[in-house]
Amino acid sequence: MYPLPEGQPKGGCVKLPRADPNVLFCSCRVAQCPQGALIADAWAEAAEADVAVINGGAIRANFSAVDVTMKHIHSVLSFPGELHRLEAVRGSVLREMI
């Protein structure tokens, strides 16, 4: 998992610079989240890749610590898509993308 910036809370929440400092914004759209990490890990394994990246906007739902079923997967990843494997992507490119 990519390290969060110093001072940022964990678990898919961030403090936005121009917002009330006591308010956390929690979503896979604004920060690294457990669902995104799980999906990226599963995709990396499926593609036999070192790393996988998912757009946070593609994660449409949440799930708790349960046995994950296809129903959960379809609710979380409700947009059909394909997994693509890229060869020889520099770490600097990945860091800039994140």
User: What Rg is obtained from the alpha carbons, in whole angstroms?
Assistant: 15 Å
State the end-to-end distance.
11 Å
Instruction: Give, in order, the helices and strands.
Output: EEHHH
Q: What is the mean pLDDT?
A: 76
- pLDDT < 50 runs, ≥5 residues: none
- Regarding quaternary structure, what we see is single chain
Number of strands: 2
Write a concise synopsis of the structure shown.
Helices cover 28% and strands 4% of the residues. It is mainly alpha-helical. The protein is flat.
Q: Could you please describe the fold and organization of this structure?
A:
- The radius of gyration is 15 Å and the shape is flat.
- 28% of the residues lie in helices and 4% in strands.
- The chain is mainly alpha-helical.
- The mean pLDDT is 76.
List keywords for this structure.
two-stranded antiparallel ribbon, flat, mainly alpha, 98 residues, 2 strands, 28% helix
Write the topology of this structure.
Elements: E1 13-14, E2 25-26, H1 34-46, H2 70-76, H3 91-97
Antiparallel strand pairs: 1-2
